[in-house]
């Protein structure tokens, strides 16, 4: 859905003026389950200083020559239930992307939130730390290139988790994505994490994750957007025919995070291997990011289930202000496969106002190389967000 500039502006002003609402709006108790409702609406605007590619195109084939994009990014609607007993469930849908989000049932063993079985669609443990964190609290408008290009998103499967407040081990078996014509290919995924330091305003997190999956159709395509989520064109790309004769794909990830009062330093590395048969050589690609955040209004982060949690502003009328800087890189060239390389630097400012509104402004400098070709766009990005 492409919005006009005036329509988008009016929608965002309406969201900004809306009165503060409470998270997880209670609905009713149905069959012993306390049912609540959540929502997340995001609208993005990108202004490109393009190099060789029309990144403002409506699609990869509909080139319009514009140097900007503006569109609704997410429109997530989520029902949640607690009970009966130790059961929790969730059913989420993104009306913008026309796909199911988390849709699963969890059983807390012995009532312990850190010891459970889960069945349905959920984020795989082999996803990145930032992918497992709450979408509404993203540090930057675009997630890292490894998250968007290498990590495995939500799939339907069965998961087991054990741990406590300072450590956890999770393993899952999964199949396809719930929404039709989306991701396919069964496999397994696991993650382990440990927080040797975990107290108020002081956190040290270390983690490792691994995913192995069938490519489903013996082909896999790896590609990366230039740090702008809605851009249809990718310069860094292993090709429209993908990596042919691909049997299985595995991903190994390392993650670390350090919180000291209002400062957070976070980094992740991922390497992906595609096992190929016949006369085709195996393929290896990798990437990483390092980011730093400063809450200039003094708030600090929490920690739950191996991911950081962003607090509400200490002063709701002034809001929570953040400054952020990230370096991101990905390399999808290996041997005869020239997918390209991308390096980017993102500088950003975030403003959480009251308990339901967020504004983000990023400036991204991107450098891409693919064989003898180069493309180096700079992008000004803005996001308006309303959530409850």
From TrEMBL:
Keyword terms: Signal
Signal as UniProt keyword: yes
Signal peptide annotation: 1-23
Keyword set includes Signal: yes
InterPro entries recorded: Porin_dom_sf, Porin_O/P
Pfam families linked: Porin_O_P (PF07396)
Domain of life: Bacteria
Protein name stated in the entry: Phosphate-selective porin OprO and OprP
Originating organism: Pseudoxanthomonas indica
